[in-house]
């Protein structure tokens, strides 16, 4: 069980201590903002969550190429912030912003950064559709079908991701 208020209490204590002894753009300050964003997201306080995710992103951008980056998984956290903001914008029906943040997350993620722009676009629509399938099935179908349309243009018909699109189209109809 998550207890966001308790999480915020301890994250804020950590942030307060770190700000006394570290530069305000230290990577671990970014981690505090990231965790604060997550706690606010769990409380459905989305504007506050986005604010902290964006603060984390600003700090992370300064540390993406540090030798110590691997200790804190800054690149992964940087991408996660973008994904989390995309999730929030999707919940708020701001699909253009969600798409933009999701595309950025796919560009950062080590598993998807090698994809072409068109493949990322297809994946982005697919991810947004999957997120909406349980709550707004009509919009989910629109996104999954857009993903399928893109993927059919660039991949063989028997590609696994095309199969997933068909599967999740059926899922959205349930």
From TrEMBL:
SUPFAM superfamilies, per the entry: TPR-like
Chain positions of TPR repeats: 30-63
Any Pfam family matching the protein: TPR_8
InterPro entries reported for this sequence: TPR-like_helical_dom_sf, TPR_rpt
Keywords from the UniProt entry: Repeat, TPR repeat
Key word Cytoplasm present: no
Keyword Cell inner membrane: no
PANTHER family noted in UniProt: AAA+ ATPASE DOMAIN-CONTAINING PROTEIN (PTHR45641:SF1), TETRATRICOPEPTIDE REPEAT PROTEIN (AFU_ORTHOLOGUE AFUA_6G03870) (PTHR45641)
Protein's name in the database: Tetratricopeptide repeat protein
Origin species: Rotaria sordida
